[in-house]
Design a protein that fits this description.
By secondary structure, this protein is of the alpha/beta class. Helices cover 30% and strands 18% of the residues. The protein starts with 6 loop residues before the first helix and ends in a 6-residue tail after the last helix.
C-alpha cells in the first residue's frame, strides 16, 4: 500500500494539493494559518512514514520458493502467532533446516498503526473472511444470522489484525490444564515461557523479575494515548472496591489500563517479533503458498511432507523430522481433516480417505461478548474517529512524526476489569472481563459493517455516527458451550463450516446477563462517571420490545441478537493424555497415533484461558520449541 509510493515526489504533490485547499473563502487568517501549519506538518510526517515503510520492507523475510521434492528437517505450516515463533526458535539451531509456509502476503507498516486495526478486518486477502453457519440462537441481528469470524491471512497472522491486548490468563487456567492430565503445563511450569517471550516495557512492572521478562521479542507496553474516560473507568473500578493492579503479575482480579503488544506506538506482531531481520540460511519462507494436504508414508503412520500450491503450481516438499501445523484454531482442523485426520464418518461422507479417526474440530471455544452496551455522555472527552483522519487537525502528524496521539489507541479499546460476577468478594479467579472503549463501535460505519449487522440494527445505531458515546463489552471468560468445525467439501478452496454454538449452555447466558449489569454498575452508579452525565442508551430492537426493560428476558433477547466474538477461537485440536478420547494431541503436542506431526497454536488449548489468547499462544509456541529441540537432541537454552 504505502510502500508503492515514490515518497519524495508524491509528498511534494500532496503538500501542494493540501496547501491549495486551505485557501477557502470565509476562513479567518488565524484558522487558515493553523490549517496550513497542520497540513504542512502532515505532509512532512507522511513523507517520513513512507521512508520508514521502505526500511520496514527491507527487514522482512525474502520469499523463497523451494524446488519440488526439496527436503527440510521441519516444515511449519502457517506464519501466524505460533508459527512465526516456532520457525524462528527452531532455526536458531544452525544445523536445523526449516521451511515456513504462509498463505498470505507480507505485513506492511500501515497495518501496525494501532487505531487502524478496525479497518484491517473483513478485507479479502488480509482476512480469511470466515463466517459461521446461520443460527436461530445467536447472531440473530447479523446479516443471514451469521457471525463474522475474522482471522489474519498475512505474515504474522491474527497478531497483525487483532487489538493487541496482552493478557496471560489466570494461574488457575494452567493448573487446570495440568489437572486434566497435561503434564508440564501447570502455571509454575509455563511461567518461564511467558517471561521468555516478553520484553516488559512498563516501568513499574519491568523490575518484577518474578513475573516478567525484559529480554524477549514481544514488547509489552501501555498505549501512548488514553482518553480521560479510560482513567475514569479505572477510578470507577476502584470506587467499587477493585484494586488497580498488574493483571499479568501475581493476581489478575482488578482494574487496569490495557497492557498491549506495542512499542512506542507501533504494533508488535509475531512476524516483527520473531522474523524481522533474521536472514538465516537455514530458514526459508514461502509466501502466498497454500498447503493442500499433509503427506504420509505408505503405512499412514508418519507424516513425511506436504503438498502446497503457489502461483498455479503444485509443489511437494518433504520433512525429515516433523511437520508442524500452526494454522490457527479454524484452519488447522480444516487442514487435518482434508489430510484424512478427523471424524471418520464425516470424512467418508466427503470422500476423504481416513488416515486416523480423531475428534478434530470438536471443543471449539470462544470468548463471546455482548456488543450492544452504548452509553451517552454530555462532554466530548473522547476522540471521535472521524476527527482523527481530518487532515486539518494535528492528529496524523502526532503519529507520523512522534508516534503519539489518538492513532496509538488499541482500536479504541483502553481499559479492562477482571471480576467475578457470581462472587464479588472472590479475589483469585474471574469469570467476566469488562472491556472498556473510550468511544462506540457504532460511530464509524465501516466498523459496524465489519460485524455484519443487519439493516434494522444498522439503522438503529446510525444516529451514533460522530456521537459522544462510550462502550463496554462484557466478555464471558469460562464458556461452558462448545462448538465444532466441519468441512464443507473436500476442496481446499472451500471455507469450513463453523458452528460456535454460543450460549447453548444456559449458564453462559446467566453469567453474561450478570456481566451486563456489572458494566452498568461501573458506568451508571459510580461518582467517577456521574460527572460526565453518563446514561445508558436504550436502543431497543423490535424483537426485544415485548420484554420489560432490564429484565433477564430482555437482556437474553439482546444477547442473542448482538453477540460479538473477541476472536479467541481455540480448542479444536484439544490437548490431553492418550487416555482422553476427546484429545487430538498429547501433552507434547504430537498428534495422537501419528508420528512426525505436531500442532502448535491455540487449537490445542483444552480449556480457554481467562483472558485474551494472543500471549498464551506465544507461550505455547515457546514451550513447543523447547520440547521439539529437546526431543531431537538440540540445546534449548
Amino acid at each position: 500500500m504505502f510502500t508503492t509510493f515514490k515518497s519524495s515526489y508524491n509528498a511534494h504533490r500532496l503538500f501542494f494539493f493540501l496547501f491549495l485547499i486551505t485557501a477557502l473563502p470565509n476562513v479567518s487568517q488565524s484558522v487558515m494559518f493553523e490549517r496550513t501549519k497542520n497540513l504542512i506538518m502532515n505532509a512532512i510526517g507522511f513523507n517520513k512514514f513512507l521512508n520508514e515503510s521502505r526500511n520496514f520492507a527491507s527487514k522482512t523475510q525474502p520469499d523463497r520458493t523451494p524446488g519440488s521434492n526439496s527436503r527440510y528437517d521441519f516444515i511449519v505450516i502457517g506464519a501466524g502467532t505460533a508459527g512465526a515463533a516456532v520457525a524462528s526458535r527452531l532455526s536458531e539451531i544452525e544445523d536445523i533446516t526449516v521451511l515456513l509456509i504462509e498463505t498470505g502476503f507480507e505485513e506492511e507498516l500501515y497495518m501496525d498503526i494501532p487505531l487502524l486495526t478496525n479497518f484491517l478486518q473483513r478485507i479479502p486477502g488480509l482476512d480469511w473472511m470466515y463466517q459461521t453457519e446461520s443460527s436461530e440462537n445467536y447472531c440473530r441481528g447479523m446479516i443471514g444470522r451469521k457471525c463474522t469470524f475474522p482471522q489474519g491471512k498475512v505474515m504474522g497472522g491474527s497478531s497483525v489484525i487483532n487489538f493487541m491486548i496482552a493478557t496471560r490468563g489466570n494461574k488457575w487456567d494452567y493448573d487446570n490444564w495440568a489437572r486434566m492430565g497435561n503434564r508440564g503445563w501447570s502455571y509454575d511450569e509455563v511461567l518461564k515461557y511467558f517471561k521468555r517471550l516478553e520484553n516488559m516495557m512498563i516501568p513499574e512492572y519491568r523490575h518484577d523479575t518474578v513475573y516478567h521478562g525484559t529480554e524477549g521479542p514481544v514488547n509489552i507496553n501501555y498505549a501512548r494515548f488514553n482518553t480521560t474516560v479510560a482513567r475514569t473507568f479505572v477510578e470507577a473500578g476502584q470506587e467499587l472496591g477493585y484494586p488497580l493492579l498488574d493483571y499479568n503479575g501475581e493476581r489478575q482480579m482488578g482494574v487496569s489500563l490495557l497492557q498491549s503488544t506495542t512499542d512506542r506506538g507501533v504494533r508488535t506482531s509475531s512476524n516483527k517479533a520473531y522474523l524481522f531481520g533474521k536472514r538465516r540460511r537455514n530458514l526459508h519462507v514461502t509466501k502466498l503458498s497454500t498447503v493442500h494436504r499433509i503427506l504420509f508414508d505408505e503405512g499412514r503412520g508418519r507424516a513425511i511432507g506436504v503438498e502446497f500450491a503457489k502461483r498455479g503450481r503444485l509443489f511437494t516438499v518433504h520433512a525429515d523430522k516433523e511437520v508442524i501445523v500452526s494454522a490457527g484454531a479454524i484452519s488447522t482442523p480444516k487442514l487435518l481433516m482434508l489430510s484424512g485426520i478427523g471424524p471418520a464418518e464425516h470424512l467418508k461422507e466427503l470422500g476423504i480417505e481416513v488416515v486416523r479417526d480423531a475428534p478434530v474440530g470438536e471443543n471449539l471455544m470462544d470468548h463471546v461478548a455482548y456488543g450492544g452496551l452504548v452509553y451517552d455522555i454530555d462532554q466530548r472527552v473522547n476522540v471521535i474517529r472521524n476527527d482523527v483522519n481530518d487532515i486539518f487537525q494535528g492528529f496524523l502528524n502526532d503519529y507520523f512524526i512522534d508516534r503519539g496521539g489518538p492513532l496509538t489507541t488499541l482500536g479504541g479499546c483502553e481499559a479492562l476489569a477482571f471480576i467475578n460476577v457470581d462472587d464479588p468478594k472472590e479475589r483469585d479467579v474471574p469469570n467476566m472481563e469488562l472491556l472498556f472503549l473510550g468511544t462506540s463501535i457504532y460511530t464509524v460505519n465501516v466498523i459496524a459493517k465489519n460485524f455484519g449487522l443487519n439493516e434494522e440494527i444498522s439503522k438503529k445505531f446510525s444516529s451514533y455516527r460522530n456521537r459522544k458515546a462510550l462502550s463496554v463489552f462484557p466478555m464471558l471468560l469460562h464458556p461452558k458451550s462448545r462448538g465444532r468445525i466441519r468441512l464443507r467439501s473436500g476442496n481446499v478452496e472451500d471455507k469450513p463450516r463453523i458452528f460456535p454454538n454460543y450460549m447453548s449452555d444456559p449458564d453462559d447466558v446467566r453469567v453474561l446477563i450478570k456481566g451486563i449489569k456489572a458494566a452498568n454498575e461501573f458506568l451508571l452508579t459510580t461518582k467517577a462517571f456521574q460527572r460526565f452525565g453518563t446514561r445508558l442508551n436504550n436502543e431497543t430492537m423490535l424483537e426485544c420490545e415485548k420484554f420489560p426493560f432490564d429484565s433477564d428476558a430482555y437482556w437474553e433477547c439482546n444477547l442473542r441478537l448482538l453477540p460479538l466474538t473477541i476472536y479467541h477461537y481455540s480448542g479444536t485440536c484439544k490437548m490431553g493424555p492418550e487416555s482422553d478420547k476427546t484429545a487430538v494431541v498429547d501433552p507434547t503436542l504430537k498428534v495422537i497415533g501419528i508420528k512426525g506431526l505436531r500442532v502448535v497454536d491455540a487449537s490445542i488449548m483444552p480449556m480457554i484461558p481467562s483472558g485474551h489468547t494472543n500471549i498464551p499462544t506465544f507461550m505455547i509456541a515457546e514451550k513447543a520449541s523447547d520440547m521439539i529441540k529437546d526431543e531431537w537432541g538440540y540445546p534449548t537454552s
